C-alpha cells in the first residue's frame, strides 16, 4: 500500500465508523497481491524461474519452509503477476535485454488440498487450458492424463504451481512431479510444501523474523482496521507471540478484532488479544486445511464448538448432542469426529472417571483457531 492510499483510506473513514474497514484484509486465509517481508526469497525464486524471461521453460522447483512462512502468499501472488506479464494475452514482451516469444506461457496455481488425487490435479490443469467441458467423473485418470498431454502439446508452455504438497491428505512433491513427467517438454512444476524432499532444485523459505512479522501485521491492520484501533505495542506482542508464524499472528489479530466488535469496544484491548491468542493452538492445524474440509465435516466442527462442557465429556456424548442439531445420525457424527481426530484437526484428551472401569472416555479439543473459524464458517 502506498502513502497516498494510506492517507485516502484514513480520510474516507469517519471517526464514528466501526472498528473494521475490511475484514478480508485481516483474515489469515487471504493472500495479498504484494506480500510483505519476502523480498529476498522472491528474488531467489525468480532466479530459479529465470528461463521464463527468455521464453524457455524453467526446471522443476520445490519451495519449502515452516508453517506460516508466507509460501502460499508469495507463490500465489507471483503466479498472478506472471500470468499478467507473460500470458498469451499479453503478447510479445520486450525489455532492454530480452524478448519473450509471443506465444507466452500458461500459469496454473493449484491448492493440493482441493486437488488431492492425480485425477483432480489433471482435471484442474486441463480445465485451465481449455474452454471445453472437462468431466468431473465418469472417465478414468489415464484418459484424463492423455487428454491433458494432448492439450499441453498443443498449447503454450505451461508452468504449474502445486501448493500444500506433502500433507496428510495431499500428494508428496515427488508424486506430483512424477505425474507430469511425460509432459516435461512443455510443462514444468513448482511444488510448495513444508519439508525439503528429494527435488534437485529446492529453495528454502525461512520463518519470519519478529521485525518482518510486525510489518506483516501492521500492513494487514492498516488495511483492515480504522485508525487508532491497534497500537504498535500490541502489534509487537502479536509478532513476538507468533514466533515467526504469520498464520497464527493473523489468526490472533482476527480473533481479537471479533472479540472487540462483539463487546462494542472502540479499540483492541489486552484482554481481547490474550483471549484471541489462547484460541490459537500452538502447532495447530491451519485454517486452510479446516476450511477445505467437506461442508458436513465443517458443520460438525461448528456444532462441537457450541457444546457446553457437560455435552463434551466423551466422543459419544458430543456426537449425540451434535446429531440433535443436524440431519446426521449419531453414528455418522461419531465417525466424522474420530476421522477429524485422526487427521489432527481435533485432539482426544482422556477424561478420568473413577466410577468407570476399563477404557476411559475422551473428550475432543479443537486444534485450529476457533474464533476465526466461527467467523469464517458463519460467512
UniProtKB/TrEMBL annotation:
It comes from Haladaptatus paucihalophilus DX253. It holds the Pfam family AAA_16. InterPro entries: AAA_16 (IPR041664), P-loop_NTPase (IPR027417), WH-like_DNA-bd_sf (IPR036388), WH_DNA-bd_sf (IPR036390). This is Cdc6-related protein, AAA superfamily ATPase. Gene3D superfamilies: 1.10.8.60, P-loop containing nucleotide triphosphate hydrolases, Winged helix-like DNA-binding domain superfamily/Winged helix DNA-binding domain. Residues 35-189 form the Orc1-like AAA ATPase domain.
Amino acid at each position: 500500500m502506498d502513502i497516498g492510499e494510506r492517507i485516502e483510506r484514513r480520510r474516507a473513514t469517519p471517526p464514528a465508523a466501526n472498528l473494521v474497514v475490511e475484514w478480508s484484509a485481516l483474515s489469515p486465509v487471504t493472500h495479498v497481491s504484494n506480500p510483505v517481508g519476502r523480498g529476498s526469497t522472491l528474488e531467489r525464486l525468480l532466479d530459479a524461474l529465470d528461463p521464463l524471461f527468455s521464453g524457455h521453460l524453467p526446471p522443476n522447483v520445490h519451495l519449502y519452509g515452516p508453517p506460516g512462512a508466507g509460501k502460499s502468499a508469495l507463490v500465489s501472488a507471483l503466479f498472478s503477476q506472471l500470468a499478467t506479464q507473460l500470458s498469451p494475452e499479453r503478447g510479445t514482451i520486450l525489455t532492454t535485454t530480452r524478448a519473450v516469444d509471443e506465444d507466452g506461457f500458461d500459469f496454473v496455481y493449484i491448492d493440493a488440498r482441493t486437488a488431492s488425487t492425480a485425477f483432480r490435479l489433471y482435471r484442474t490443469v486441463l480445465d485451465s487450458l481449455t474452454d471445453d467441458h472437462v468431466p468431473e467423473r465418469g472417465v478414468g485418470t489415464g484418459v484424463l492424463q492423455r487428454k491433458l498431454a494432448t492439450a499441453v502439446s498443443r498449447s503454450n508452455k505451461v508452468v504449474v504451481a502445486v501448493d500444500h504438497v506433502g500433507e496428510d491428505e495431499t500428494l508428496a512433491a515427488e508424486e506430483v512431479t512424477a505425474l507430469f513427467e511425460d509432459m516435461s517438454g512443455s510443462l514444468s512444476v513448482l511444488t510448495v510444501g513444508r519439508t525439503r524432499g528429494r527435488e534437485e532444485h529446492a529453495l528454502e523459505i525461512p520463518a519470519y523474523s519478529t521485525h518482518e512479522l510486525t510489518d506483516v501485521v501492521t500492513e494487514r491492520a492498516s488495511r483492515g482496521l480504522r485508525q487508532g484501533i491497534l497500537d504498535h505495542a500490541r502489534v509487537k506482542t502479536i509478532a513476538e507471540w507468533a514466533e515467526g508464524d504469520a498464520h497464527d499472528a493473523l489468526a490472533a489479530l482476527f480473533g481479537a478484532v471479533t472479540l472487540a466488535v462483539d463487546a462494542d469496544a472502540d479499540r483492541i484491548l489486552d484482554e481481547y488479544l490474550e483471549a484471541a491468542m489462547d484460541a490459537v493452538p500452538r502447532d495447530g492445524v491451519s485454517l486452510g486445511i479446516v476450511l477445505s474440509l467437506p461442508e458436513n465435516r465443517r458443520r460438525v466442527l461448528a456444532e462441537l464448538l457450541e457444546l457446553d462442557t457437560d455435552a463434551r465429556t466423551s466422543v459419544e456424548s458430543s456426537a449425540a448432542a451434535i446429531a440433535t442439531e443436524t440431519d446426521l445420525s449419531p453414528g455418522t457424527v461419531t465417525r466424522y469426529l474420530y476421522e477429524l481426530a485422526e487427521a489432527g484437526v481435533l485432539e482426544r484428551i482422556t477424561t478420568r472417571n473413577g466410577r468407570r472401569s476399563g477404557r476411559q472416555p475422551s473428550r475432543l479439543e479443537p486444534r485450529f483457531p476457533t474464533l476465526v473459524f466461527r467467523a469464517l464458517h458463519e460467512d
